[in-house]
């Protein structure tokens, strides 16, 4: 019972979330670390994530790119190549070895990107052709500049959905659990296991997202 008489659930009590039985309610939030050089998770992430693991505790990995068009921050991990999948395996294994539950958060940053992150210097892809104003960021880049995005054609959307499908399968192959959750965040395309759908997205892409 709290001081105002309301019922209080202790933070360190178990919680059943779908098929997962969490031993407590303290979750590692997804935190972009920018230490995955060349978009490949590094050995030091084994220590980073295992240090934050408790038996029955949930960890959500830093946002992880689904394709070469999905990147917008330096040195963030991906999960679209074999090398990336193999690099994730010892990290996930280390979390499991301590009894933790690990989700991979997969994303495409959409227009939160610039030509420098895109294959062949192409325009970032988005649900809109409206660009973003420069942004002050907390680490690495003092001010991030964004290039004008290219609005995806309807017929291109299934390819993006397929990127997510493959990345989700790769995440499972690497040992992660997958637990889709939908949230709205402006500018990102779609993120699973927090599935983020841009608020500029059209109905067609929304429908496609649910086909995952
Ligand atoms: C350095 C930093 C990196 C972050 N990276 C991610 C990320 O990769 N994915 C995500 O969904 N949220 C990310 N976030 C948001 C955090 O998960 C969020 O701050 C945390 O859940 C706490 O929520 P609050 O800021 O609303 O209190 C990041 C936040 C910070 C400060």
From TrEMBL:
Q: Quick check: keyword Flavoprotein in the entry? A: yes
What family classification does the UniProt entry report for this protein? Belongs to the NADH:flavin oxidoreductase/NADH oxidase family.
* Record-level Gene Ontology MF annotations: FMN binding; oxidoreductase activity
Give the signal peptide range: none
What cofactor does its activity depend on?
FMN
- Per the record, the domain of life is Eukaryota
**Name of the protein this chain belongs to:** 12-oxophytodienoate reductase
Q: Which UniProt keywords apply?
A: Flavoprotein, FMN, NADP
One Pfam family it belongs to = Oxidored_FMN
Every copy of the NADH:flavin oxidoreductase/NADH oxidase N-terminal domain together lies at 11-175
Give the matching InterPro entries: Aldolase_TIM, OxRdtase_FMN_N, Oye-like
């Amino acid at each position: 019972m709290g001081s105002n008489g309301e019922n209080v659930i202790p933070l360190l009590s178990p919680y059943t979330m779908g098929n997962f039985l969490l031993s407590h309610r303290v979750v590692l939030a997804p935190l972009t670390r920018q230490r995955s050089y060349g978009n490949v998770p590094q050995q030091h992430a084994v220590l980073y994530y295992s240090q934050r693991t408790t038996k029955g505790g949930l960890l959500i990995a830093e946002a992880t790119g689904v394709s070469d068009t999905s990147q917008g921050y330096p040195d963030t991990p991906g999960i679209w190549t074999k090398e990336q999948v193999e690099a994730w395996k010892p990290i996930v294994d280390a979390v499991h070895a301590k009894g933790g539950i690990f989700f991979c958060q997969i994303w495409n940053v959409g227009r939160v990107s610039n030509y420098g992150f895109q294959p062949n210097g192409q325009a970032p892809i988005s649900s809109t052709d409206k660009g973003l104003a420069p942004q002050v960021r907390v680490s690495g880049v003092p001010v991030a500049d964004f290039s004008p995005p290219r609005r995806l054609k309807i017929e291109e959307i299934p390819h993006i959905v397929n990127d997510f499908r493959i990345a989700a399968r790769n995440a499972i192959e690497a040992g992660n659990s997958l637990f889709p959750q939908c949230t709205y965040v402006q500018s990102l395309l779609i993120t699973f296991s927090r599935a983020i759908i841009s608020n500029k997205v059209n109905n067609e892409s929304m429908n496609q997202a649910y086909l995952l």
